[in-house]
Amino acid sequence: MVDTTSRAGPRLDKLQWNMVQVARTVPLFRGLAEEEWAAIAPLLHGHCFPKDAYIFFQGDPPDALYVIWMGRVKLVRHTDNGRDVVLEVLGPGQLIGEMAVLDTRPYSTTAQTLEDVAVVTIARRDFYDMLERYPRVAMAVITELSRRLRMTTEMVRSLAVDRVEQRIARTLLRLSELAGRPYDSRPGAIVIDIPLTRQDIAEMTGTTVETAIRIMSRFRKQGLVLSARGRVVILSPDELTEVARNG
Amino acid sequence: MVDTTSRAGPRLDKLQWNMVQVARTVPLFRGLAEEEWAAIAPLLHGHCFPKDAYIFFQGDPPDALYVIWMGRVKLVRHTDNGRDVVLEVLGPGQLIGEMAVLDTRPYSTTAQTLEDVAVVTIARRDFYDMLERYPRVAMAVITELSRRLRMTTEMVRSLAVDRVEQRIARTLLRLSELAGRPYDSRPGAIVIDIPLTRQDIAEMTGTTVETAIRIMSRFRKQGLVLSARGRVVILSPDELTEVARNG
DNA sequence: CGTTTGCTTGATACGTATCAAAGTTGGTGG
DNA sequence: CCACCAACTTTGATACGTATCAAGCAAACG
Q1: pLDDT reported for residue B151
Q2: What is the extent of the structural domain holding A39?
């Protein structure tokens, strides 16, 4: 499952970090004053990862909090019997590793890049200080945790009562909100701008590759989706929404 | 067969609230100073609910945050097709409704009492002020949200890869940690001190009543559990743990 | 008491996992 | 540039787990 193909992204290794600008931009620090951004900037550290790299592993001791600056990352939960579960795909501005950092327990998931990624790290101690000093930062963390909890809750519901077909439909629609852009060749259609294998789709929906493939084939035959080279196109979002609802 | 003596609950309707004492006791306000507790106390309001009452419904507009003072509450997510999912069972000291209050969106779940319950409510506006003023309170909220997210994540994993048998075993073990007390008639055995129907177990594990019943019967025949009158006894926690792991 | 609510069991159908084998694609190195 | 390789996708046959439908039973309740 390790892909070494690296599509030519921006020259991450040459990335120039302007940490004050980063502080200004990132949702975590939204609403702070200019001088607060300046105070925070020195505590931020830039880091780059190639596609398919691991930012941290489930079980690792938590040393830092990460804010995604560029690229997408998936959170994977490993299981004893070898089957993995993808909990979420996160993009620029979002946090990873915050829970582990906060309660000083090992990372509960693995964070793996889906493409070339740049992140900003904050040392645990520094992050703690920020939470105490800036209520706005704490609020931003609370907001993000709430969003995550909502989404995970919805995933529980879906796994508990939906069939695989509906779960995949839902997942595709969710990804299209996260990373969709118009598909030029067909008005109304949406490209999911994340490289996704059938294995990924299976792990996001709690099923096997074979079943994911069968369902995706069915969707294709029904004219709901297209897919090639790791990209999925939703041809008919409305019909797919219908499938997500009623099966 | 099973000891079901329901411990006579305190007279909730006669409960005398000492809000300073409440503020001192509740994890949400842990670490604050005595005068801060005093300042907060007037913003707290006591409220009681009988068994099986609804504290709020999924979809309701969020008016207040609740801290459980006494009794257990289940969070239920309703689905279009009528099947419900129990996300969590919460007890004294824990928060409910915090997410909705924080991002001003309708409650994402229904909170229903499992027994007689007393709660402390905090108006949305007041809670907001506390978060800004007391970093410790924000930290307590973050801690609780993290715990919830961890647990929900584990639930996703379990639903995605475990069979029903393992999910039920896990759920019983989790509940025994939350609300277990020794079972007098058998050393090592644990009574889950929460009234639970098979329907509840089914909704907690994403299955149907019939399947929940079949699995529980199998557990009983294997000498793993006992159950009667809404109480479940885990006779052999070790063997049940084994089932949770390997099926 | 009858009535309701929860529990139990059985027969059957359906969805999905599993196992097996072959086809496809993109990248690598000769 | 081609041939090969590894990873990914596809299809089929079969087995298993669980939902569904149906019916009866036990216990709690007003």
Answers
A1: 94
A2: 4-158
